[in-house]
Design brief:
mainly alpha; three-stranded mixed sheet
Length: about 210
């Protein structure tokens, strides 16, 4: 537990980052054996720095509270949670209890409503399928993925075609506007070079207007 949490602390800190960028780590450990002695099914640990002589708790300065977004020094350090599944007495009173019930019994009651429990129920249902049923289920999922991919591609192509049509329409409108300006300039007697500079049309495009 200690090694795993410590490893995460170093992995979360990128090269060149200051130590203040270290991420908070929560170490949640699900155990099905007697890790230590105790009758509860949830144990938590949050270390504190306690004065050896005065017994006071080390507190952050106001600046540190603001910089690290903490209320006490212990908030920076990893928190450890032990879920001793075998000690659970089957009565689920909280959302966490519902998950522990699931972990202990591989079962989810219909009245459970913890976040994510529906996804776990579906995963459990698939796990309990026979090999033939699971193969059929995988084929069903593949077909759904294929359908979604085809639909997504069609939607993208349609959207792209519409966008291209809009772009062509805009370009045509701009071109027509330039031609109208070129005609007006020609009627005012401006020379071809000047009209080219004003409209950004080519010499051939402008000279063709003289032939109309």
């Amino acid at each position: 537990m200690l090694y795993g949490a410590s490893k995460l602390v170093t992995e979360y800190l990128g090269k060149g980052q200051e130590y203040g960028e270290i991420k908070k780590v929560y170490s949640i450990n699900i155990v099905y054996f007697n890790l230590g002695m105790g009758d509860d099914y949830i144990y938590s640990y949050r270390g504190e720095f306690v004065g050896a002589n005065l017994g006071d708790i080390l507190q952050p300065t106001k600046t540190q509270e603001f910089k690290f977004n903490i209320n006490k020094v212990a908030d920076i350090f990893p928190e450890y949670y032990l879920l001793k599944v075998n000690n659970f007495k089957e009565l689920a009173k909280t959302s966490l209890d519902e998950w522990i019930y699931f972990l202990k019994n591989s079962d989810i009651k219909t009245e459970f409503s913890a976040k994510g429990i529906e996804e776990a129920k579906e995963a459990l249902r698939v796990t309990n399928l026979s090999e033939q049923e699971r193969a059929a289920y995988e084929r069903y999922l593949k077909n759904k993925r294929d359908e979604a991919s085809i639909l997504s591609t069609q939607e993208f192509e349609t959207r792209w075609q519409v966008e291209q049509a809009e772009i062509r329409g805009m370009e045509k409108g701009i071109k027509q506007e330039k031609i109208a300006i070129a005609r007006s300039c020609r009627e005012q007697g401006l020379d071809v070079e000047t009209i080219m500079k004003i409209t950004q049309l080519s010499r051939e495009e402008i000279e063709s207007l003289y032939k109309l």
